[in-house]
Give the backbone structure.
Amino acid sequence: METTYEDVWKNCLKIIRDNVSLQSFKTWFEPIKPVRLENSVLTIQVPSQFFYEWLEEHYVGLLRKTIKRELGIDARLEYRIVVDNSAGNAKPFTVNYPNYNTGNNKNPEVAAPLVMGNSIKNPFIIPGLKKVNIESQLSPAYNFDNFVEGDCNRLARSAGFAVATKPPGTTAFNPLVVYGGVGLGKTHLVQAIGNQFKQHFPNKTVLYVSSEKFTNQFIEALKNNAVNDFIHFYHLIDVLIVDDIQFFANKDKTQDIFFHIFNHLHQGGKQLILTSDRSPRDLEGMEERLLSRFKWGLSADLQVPDFETRIAILEKKMYADGIELPREVVEFVAYNINTNIRELEGALISLLAQASLNKKEIDIELAKKIIKNFVKSISREVSIEYIQKTVCEHFEIPMDKLKEKTRKRAIVQARQLSMFLAKNFTKNSLKVIGKHFGGRDHSTVIHSCQAVQNLIDTDGEFRDSVKEIQKKIQLSIT
Ligand code: ADP
Ligand code: MG
């Protein structure tokens, strides 16, 4: 029986799946389509040039080994790149997400039917009302389904999920402190925990409050002589979520009252969830006794998502909004916007806005134009020429030598180092970098980068040269 390319590729995928992370597998291997098998040459179709280069750079070893295992020692791999996205003849890239919950009316807000006595006022409610429910103040748009998991958030997410699905106070994560820089998903995650918890325990009371709001309510209570009401109100909560506690810094009285509320809830087996823009260890202007409480439970950080996770986040967002974009546009955005998720979303929104304004399909050219305006750092990028010039000056060799075929050691090293720096300091593709060095191909660039890395690891003098050159380049950017 003849083996088909589909079978071969299926078997390869089985092996690959065991050797890469799930996110990488979804991002880089699921979109591949096998198209031909002839004389031990397997041809696979990939959605873009960049995609192909990424595979070659990161997975060439794995691919090679896998193919040889399936097809024997002579096996080779060939790529077919889907080139023309704008003409609409390339297959759009789509992903199916099961159970996607858009946060609509499937989960109506279930507020705990708490009847409050006259003496306790709910600071979230306009005064004068006697019978009130404690509304959670959560936005149903934030849930676990639309919170993409990645290495950057795995611990925080899984601890959060445990807190959300177990009875309050029964996990070791109390308080759960989620910390990380701006736009990395703290608010999203803690709100998702709150929403999930409400679904599981509709009779319990969840409350989300920002530390600023908490502070203002407290000041108001002080003014109105209603501090007891304020305290009593917060004592009624089963899961208290306080966002951005770094704003408690240097507010001694607020910290004091929060300390007492914290203790009361914690002792009563209630759950506390806090977020902060830095680790509790690094919070300044906080009372020591409060800080030590924060360390009782679990502190989990959110980090900048890696490239694969950024792609997954963009795709999820596109899917939710019913948008389709060419794969290479998604890659371009994910590659260039690497600071935080809010900016990633912002880039996507400005892309869509511009496209509808111009009544134009979003292709890679338009994306480049828009994203360039979006990220200042792109325009501040150094050029490959500048890198070449800096390297050549350092080693005192003429610049045009970099483009020649000469194999003189000093020149080869300068050429390889220039490629290495071009890769690290610019956003050019390997193909474009190769072109700047007398039309070398991308695999030469990959090889050069590896050679430089080896030298850096083994040769102290070379390492110092690299450092010095890097410093010069860095200075020219900032
Ligand atoms: P922070 O509170 O840390 O400043 P946010 O929670 O407001 O950040 O997140 C910023 C934006 O990024 C929000 O729109 C949020 O929905 C989105 N976001 C953050 N993390 C993720 C994720 N893991 N998956 C999907 N979207 C995310
Ligand atoms: Mg936030």
